[in-house]
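Quick one: co-fold with zinc ion.
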Amino acid sequence: MAIDLFFSTFSHHIPQFRGMNVPAYNYSVLERFMRYVRIDTQSDPNSPTCPSTEKQKNLGRLLVQELKDLGIGDAEMDEWGYIYATLPSNSTREVPVICLCSHMDTSPETSGKDVRPEIKRNYQGGDIPLGTSGISILEGEHPELRHCLGHDIICTDGTTLLGADDKAGLAEIMDAIAFFQANPHIPHGSVRILFTPDEEIGRGANKVNLSKLGAKYGYTVDGESRGSIEDETFSADMAKIRFFGTNVHPGYAKGRLVNALKVAGTFIDSLPKQEWSPETTSGRQGFVHPYDMQGGVETATITLILRSFDDKDLAEYAHRLRALAQAAVQAYPGARFVIELTEQYRNMKNVLKDCPEVVEFAVEAISRAGMKPDLGSIRGGTDGSRLSFMGLPCPNLFAGGHSFHSKTEWISVQDMQAAVDMLVELVKIWDEKAQQEVA
Ligand SMILES: [Zn+2]
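Sure, here it is.
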């Protein structure tokens, strides 16, 4: 993700909303965050259930209770562990219903059990040692730290991940709701809150009930650096290429045996080595990536992912793969292959380009909250890309965390507060831009 070297890092020490006729607001985002990260919500890709781990509902129950404590009476968790709640409109205008979304689970890659968050107040530069683990967050490897001088940095004790991905998003949405409940004179439309389980294992959008949600547009709050917003993801296909040989007893195989493994090896070797791969591309370049190979003499199957920001490229990539597979089987008379393509997800820009205000309002909200907007693309997919194609256009807003899924995960308290400001401004902008008065 792009890092913006130009934004001010010193504007966020005073807990105060700029550009609001509210002198000061006592953020609750830090206290909420510290509560949420202590609850283990690791998801499990090998579990067939939803949520994949029952413990995610422990955090879900706490969030429902906290929403009720904020006066959000309809807050509920469904049987799948999804949380729905409404900040009702207090506006005189017809404001489109927007949804703010984040996920409750943490990555299966690193333990999220017994997270012991530590706050390093007033960071003055340098490496950050993590408890007694011997691990440090190295300044040289985390250039974003340079933008956080004077900030309060939350990190782990080096034994677990932190869970800023995406408990920062949860805490920020909760604090924005708390802000509006504490400032009922500020007009806003209806805001639907959606907290999902199992995002980290790619199932976060699976059981979202969009008609029940009843929102027109959405925002996931699951991005990284302060000021960033993403309105593009990869488009993604998967290809399975199966090579067929002929197996014969090797002692009597002359002129008859055709080894599918060798055909597959020839195919792999024919893929470009200096381009068209994850290890040789960046920015807006696409790639193909073989990531699994299974087989024997009779058959060998190679599974690849195809990735590009442009859908049209994917068809061309498949065409190129087919030509290479054809060349490989031609080198082994008697061999043949089949290729099977599966659509995985599509660039959310295809949907968002038809409702440009969704991104424009978010960019404006980031500016109003005192940051330089950094509009970018994700070399991957998000729940937002799936939600966009399910009918809820849904760009991704920053939550502020860094070094996701690892023991060196960290986040700045001031950046979380900036995210709360952004969400508050965003909700206000949707109201301001709505013209039509309620009949
Ligand atoms: Zn996330």
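If it helps, The pocket of zinc ion is lined by residues 103, 165-166, 199, 222 (CB under 6 Å).
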